[in-house]
Structures are given as structure tokens and as C-alpha cells.
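Let's practice the habit of predicting before peeking. Look at the sequence and jot down your guess about where helices and strands might fall. Then scroll down.
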Amino acid sequence: MTIIHWPISERPREKLLQRGASVLSDAELLAIFLRTGIVGKSAVDLARELLQHFGSLSDIFSSSQSEFCQFPGLGNAKYAQLQAVLEMSRRALAEELKCNDVLNSPQSVRNFLRLSLARKPHEVFLGIFLDTRNQIIASEELASGTLTETSVYPREVIKRTLYHNAASVIFAHNHPSGKTDPSHADLMLTEILKKALATIDVKLLDHFIITSDNEILSFSEHHLI
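Done guessing? Here is the structure:
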């Protein structure tokens, strides 16, 4: 039975409009994004198969173009739409953070970092530069690959900090391995950058590690800074 033959109250789009997006299941939300199913399968059926195949919404979001498009009923157009949705979400969170005191919006910071870093296939080191009101001036990718004190150059970090005239900085990087535990290199790098920033009277507020499972560790909360 196609969705059009379902009771109106059970159709994902109508359900969302009547009761809000939060009441929908992952499959129902994904079905609204897909819009249509394929022969013999409704959009909800297709969404359920997608979730079963990839494992979760976040795994769908992080799939490569070839992985995504190999699934029946999907293609380049849908992949482009998906990437556009993710990028709009990242930009919306970034805009929200730029209008608020970051220290008073810890969950927003975490959400932004998860969207930005959690599903990266390789390590990425991000710098978030803040003004005297703890509002974000800019966020930049400062390095990628295997992160050590030799791959993230303190001189370059200082250069970007001065360029943005930042009063404080937050660092974040991802662990594709899925473990939040900071390595010895992570701890050494953080200490080196903290001391380098102190020479220009800039404070390191925190350093976050984000895993592929969306777990997050704060160095500040664990007294590692």
C-alpha cells in the first residue's frame, strides 16, 4: 500500500505538520526527505531498508557518494540534496553560535562540532576563534591527517589567531577510531599550543575530541587543560 492510501494522521508529512518533527521516527523523517519510494515499496519502506543497510542516520549522512548512489532508488540528485541539508545545518548552528556567548551555549558548540567533525574519515584539527564576548569570529581547519605537535604548527595557529584578533580559542579534532581517550600526542600538542597562545595573551578555553559515534570529550571538563 502506498503512503497516499494511509490514514492522513499516519502519513509522515501530515504527521509532522500536525504534531511536530520530534514525534516522527528516523524512518519517517528520512521518508519525507526521500519523497517517493520505488516500485513495490513506499518511501517509508525504502527509508527502513536504508537505515538497516547503513546502520543509522549518521552513517547515511557520512556515506560516500558511490555508497549512497549504489542503493536502489537513490542517485546523484538525492546525494546532492542530502549534502545540502547537512551543510545548511552546519551553517545554521554556526550562525547561532556567532550570536551567543559560547560559554553559555555548550550544547550548541557540541552539536556544531559533531556535524563538522564526527563523520570525517581522517583526523581533522579545527580552531574556533572567539572575541572578548566569547562569540565566534570564525572556525577554520588548521590541519588534517595524523595530528602531532609537528603537524599542527604553533606558529600557524598563532598567525591565524592574530589574523582574527581573537581573545580566546577552542580546539577540536576527531578520532575516526571511535575512542575519545586523548593520546599522548593529543596532550602534548594541547600543552604546546596553550603555552604558545599565552605568549600573545590569548586563552585556550577547551579542546574537544569527537568520535565517529558522536561521543565527545572536553579537555576542560576532565581537567586536562
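How did you do? Residues 76-98 form the longest helix (23 residues).
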